[in-house]
Amino acid sequence: MLNKEIPFLRLGVPLCAGIITGLWISPGTLFFIVSASITIILFCASIRFNRYLTNIVYGISLTLALWLAGLFLYTQEKMRISDLPPEETIYKGILEDIPEEKENTWKMTVRLTSMLKNDSIIPVGGSLLVYHRKELNRLSLLPGDELTINCMPERIKSRGNPGEFDYAFYMETQGIRYLAFTGSNDISVHSKPDRRKIKYSSLIIREKIIGMFSNRGVPEERLGLVAAITLGQKNMLDPEQKQYFMKAGVMHIMAVSGLHAVILSLFIFRLLFFLKGRMNIVRVLITLFILWAFAFITGLTPSVLRATLMFSFLQAGKIMKRPVNGINSVLASAFVLILIRPSVIFDAGFLLSYSAVIFIISFYNDLYLKITFRHKIPDLIWQSAAVTIIAQAGTLPLTVMLFNRFPVWFIISNIIIVPLSSLVVIGGVLVLMTYPLPFLSKLLAWLLDLLTRLTESLTEKAASLPLSTIENIGFSTTECIFLSITLFLLIRYMLERKSIPVFYPLVFFLLFTSAGTVKVLSGRKSAELIVYNTIGNTTIGVRSGSLLACYSDTIIPVREVERHRAMMGLKENTTNISDNFCISINERDHVLLTNHLTSSILEKISPEMVVLTGERPIVERNISTMSKLKALVVGPEVRKQYGLNAIQTDTVHFVKNSGAFRIRL
Hints:
By secondary structure, the protein is an alpha/beta fold. The chain is globular.
């Protein structure tokens, strides 16, 4: 049944499975040649079974072909990112986005095309994250400009703390594996192309639109919020503003996606109310044109492309007078985006957007019809609440797994703030449409500023409510998958009990709880030593089962420890440490924490491991007993490494450079 109604589900699952397989294996050309040959043979063999009701051989062949396609596409995408030498080199590349202003630097993404080495030009791939020293208030660089940069690339690394966001993997899925720091003399050549690509032109137009808002009177302090809500440009927002929207559970209004596409399409449809009957096709085409134009000026991001593609598929079905399955249209748009960039399936925005839309299409109408109101205003409030409840249910497991937080008052904040943000989007469109009429556009810009100010104020109040958000919670990937399926089946059962038996949601709920139980039990049977990669302090954790003993040189709660403790359900016991502090794990194993390492200290304590603390630890030269250590860990506070170059051992771990140190005990 699903194969007929939602064919892209059958096509998408093996494709995504192949991409996920690429996380662990990177097969060579021979593997793909042999596998492709086997697949072709299976396809040929399936012809003999066409007269049967079901062709199992064809199904196996198609599934294998899609799995191979996913693995091949993801492998090729990873191979396109070149490994760069850790030395000063001249690179040529193309600026990918508008430079983002930081406190002391300009942040730029440069897509590399080649590098100059030994008087020869070598093609390279991937992008480079460049932090250019701020010496001018504004850079005269635009997306699509060709640059020649002299720099020394550094590999982007994650901090490696337990349960922490893998920043290096995230950047690699964006095609960025290295970063570099440059000064005024490092960009030697800057040239403008004869013709820019569409995506670069769209980003330039987006900046011009932000300038149009400013010219019509939107003040500087709210220009960033207007740009974020209407165009998805969040670079101008203050970190404090972002925190308010995250805590209130309405950060999604700043990600140009299905919400914006729905708002805009409904607004255009209402404006063109006079086009009815045979002229309805003109109404649809005009709406699609404006929607694709909106996608263009917002930078053609995956989220808005998904929404625009989905809307286009739905409207195409209506024009051809053919019934269109909403979920199949959503999955079809996802299938196209995955073929273009396979690693998009690991993008948080992509996952959250699709899970929310699939839940809304599946359950919103049934939930909305459960309660009816005679008056329009309560009915509109219930519509907003129903959408919010269903969307939040769809994104709950992903939100907890990806961001380790849950907004408690999301229903109240979404009921109030989402309609306001809709008016902000419409107001922004009207300002642009009336821009040639200064008097009218200035009046609309004043209303836009008023709506934006109200949105910001209400969001700040929602974020300041007691228990506005639950922090430091998290799921494993397995728990996230089982909980998502459980919620989907449970809501389906509650809204339409005859569709499925209660047995199915109960089974997956049991699998969800079992996954959590296995995680806890496996943790209780193990023990490990952790030197956290913190900022401004040195913190060591010794986990024995569900008990976490922390030793830190600060009395302030350490965020990295709090996250680890909450995610794994650990009981924490903290001890404040001083110089030459010794941790006794058992009768034999000792860990020494010191900022002054000498032979006499080593002989006296005989530690198994040493952690150097402080900003400038001193290590005595020619320590004879150093080779007996299992590990020498250089803490994250260390800035100047006195005597460390003289250490003759392969067991040195620099936390700041290599991430948190973890070893099983």
